[in-house]
Amino acid sequence: MADISRADVEHLAKLAHISMSEAELEKMTGELGVIVDSVKTVQEAAGEDIPATSHPVALTNVFREDVIGHTYTAEESLANAPDAEDGRFKVPAILDEE
Amino acid sequence: MTTTPHSTDLIRLTAAEMAAKLRAGEITSVDLTQAHLDRIEAVEPTLNAFLHVSAEEALTTAAEVDKIRVAGGAEAEKLHPLAGVPIAIKDLIVTKGQPTTAASKILEGWMSPYDATVVEKIREAKLPILGKTNLDEFAMGSSTEHSAFGPTRNPWDIERIPGGSGGGSAAAVAAFEAPLALGTDTGGSIREPGAFTGTVGTKPTYGGVSRYGAIAMASSLDQIGPVTRTVEDAALLHELIGGHDPKDSTSLPEPVPALVDAARTHDVAGKKIGVIKQLATGEGYQQGVLDAFNSSLDALREAGAEIVEVDCPSFDYALGAYYLIMPSEASSNLARYDGVRYGTRVLPEEGPLTIERVMGATRAAGFGEEVKRRIILGTYALSAGYYDAYYGSAQKIRTLIQRDFDAAFEQADVLISPTAPTVAFKMGEKTDDPMAMYLNDIATIPANLAGIPGINVPAGLSDGLPVGIQFLAPAKEDARVYHAAAALEELLGGKGEVIWQQIPDLASSSVDV
Question: Which Enzyme Commission numbers does its entry carry (chain B) (predicted)?
């Protein structure tokens, strides 16, 4: 079993901004261990001299003219916002302070 | 006096036949669209293939096409061959005026301010859009059981799953709710549901169809493609949606190849078809699947094709590489759902109300279990100290898989394998075992990692359930998979085995639900 602890998963969940209950953390730790064990075999075949592929059909220098295309009005952009005020997105406190 | 075909007969035509009847003025698009809407109303309580039905909009488009046809002249001449033939869109593809949810609570009620490029093309060609089809949340799954809005059932056996992630599109097409649909394929999400529902589905060459407006899961793997009942229909739809799009920087500059021509040529004499050793044997493959596969090989051989075996040793690592690359890209792509600019916002039940805590609560409530699992796995694979060992190694495997394909295509024009190791499984059978679910994709994943085209074509039944065969071709050679698939479809159909016509009558089976 891969050495993924409950504390690791708790940290990952924090990085990923997903609040998790104790039960969820417990379950996820077990599942992640099994999955990582199955996928880590890739290391066996990944020799030093093999180049990495990030894109299957690579293109280079994809440019476009530097002109303004279609733009959205503030109203359109805010139409789906959970909360808005004065033509801006409204969010709760950004800093964890009183 | 002309006789109007009964509406239940109309929906059982192929898209090409529907298009021909529309052009000949034998039927109207309004009647054709209404027939599909009636079918949707009748079977949706059983299947749940649609998340949203846009009847009014579809009928408006249909009436427009009819009006142009009746008026005749240059405008009628200019109509796209598929104009007036209705279509369903996987709800991962954004549409203006209809909700797009990705089958996730986090996007419930969201209205896209723009159309995907493929949707723009469909609107331009005047195909009535029937609605948005169900999927695994954010296309993460192989059974459509991970939809936040309930699973879709397989019309061949409603106790079974229709495959995933595009189970909604596949079930809708198989059950005659729509003759055409769009899907997306990241690791097999068009082809595996095709295999499980007896439908045809293509994953085009990466970049062959614009991804602009497809909600991203894994950007280097995702590809939009057609879902239909026949190979010719798939080619017709593929030609409509394919081609270069400046809005997608990974879009290929080449024009879309002549796919319909390829789908209408059935001669395989002298063609070399490579059986991938790693994907045709071994454990996990059901006997019924192997039997249908071997019968297909026999039929192709009889028609003059040369069957050769090819060795792709790196495929043993494909599943591992995929389940590292896909979640890594997904964890990054899904970071945008934070409850700030759009989508659901959920406040934490207790404690201070900071943006951090609101994001945590929003994503906890908005994402389902499988999405969370993949985000956490991806975050792990990309984290400092593991990046080289996991993500880096997986990218190297990708190179090896491409090399295996390159070598295989030196020996064969197209490659062949079963599309999935099993037929459609029972609902709930694999939901508690993520690894068992992931193994469904074993045969479809290599094509996504290498960016090459693949097609599923129905090849028989095993205990009354469809078995699918997959053809693969080199990048940008999509025409080859259409040619091979059309040939096999013709060879099997010639023996009276048109799979999609053998689907049991859903109306009678739904009585027991």
Answer: 6.3.5.7
Q: Do B373 and A20 touch (CB under 8 A)?
A: no
The single residue listed with the structure tokens 């270069």 is: B244
Give the C-alpha separation, B181 to B346, whole Å: 34
- Output the furthest CA–CA distance in chain A (Å, rounded): 57
Higher per-residue confidence, A93 vs B372: B372
B189 is catalytic: yes
pLDDT digits (tens, 9 = 90+) for B317-370: 999 999 999 999 999 999 999 999 999 999 999 888 999 999 999 999 999 999
Nearest-Cα distance to chain A for B374, in Å, is 9
State mean pLDDT over B170-176. 98
Query: Which of the residues B114, B357, B397, B403 would you substitute to probe the A interface, choosing the one with the greatest number of A C-beta atoms within 10 Å?
Result: B397
Q: Determine the average pLDDT of the residues in B214-233.
A: 97
CA distance A86 to chain B (A): 14
| A80 to chain B: closest CA residue | B342
**Three-class SS of residue B83?**
coil
In the numeric block, the tokens 């990708």 are attached to: B398
Per-residue pLDDT reduced to its tens digit, B41-96 = 999 999 999 999 999 999 999 999 999 999 999 999 999 999 999 999 999 999 99
Alpha-carbon gap, residue B284 to B277, rounded angstroms? 14
A69/chain B closest Cα distance in angstroms: 11
CATH topology of domain A6-45: Histone, subunit A (1.10.20)
Distances A31 to A22, B284, B378, B461 between C-alpha atoms, Å: 15, 21, 14, 34
Q: pTM, whole model, 2 decimals?
A: 0.96
Candidates B206, B380, B388, B433: best to mutate against A (most CBs of A within 10 A) is B380
Residue with tokens 């649909």: B181
pLDDT of residue B288: 95
- Sort out which chain A residues have CB atoms less than 8 A from B343's CB and list them: 80, 82
User: To the nearest whole percent, how much of chain B has pLDDT over 90?
Assistant: 89
By percentage, how much of chain B surpasses pLDDT 70? 96
> What is the average pLDDT value for chain B, to the nearest integer?
94
Q: How far is B81 from chain A (nearest CA, A)?
A: 30
pLDDT surpasses 90 at B159:
yes
User: What domains sit in chain B, N to C, each tagged with a CATH number?
Assistant: 7-265+456-512 (3.90.1300.10), 315-402 (no CATH)
Nearest residue in B to A88, CA atom: B341
**């009636």: which residue's tokens?**
B38
* CB pair distance less than 8 Å for B451 and A93: no
pLDDT value of residue B6: 63
| Residue B97 CB coordination number (10 Å) | 10
B219 flagged as catalytic:
no
Give the pLDDT of residue A94.
76
- Best probe of the B interface among A22, A34, A53, by most B CBs < 10 A, is A53
Compare all CA atoms of chain B with the CA of A50 and give the residue at the minimum distance: B396
A17 closest CB neighbour out of B113, B360, B434: B360
Listing DSSP states for B143-207 in one string gives SSTT-TT-PPPBTTBTTB---SSSHHHHHHHHTTS-SEEEEE-SSSTTHHHHHHHT-EEEEPPTT
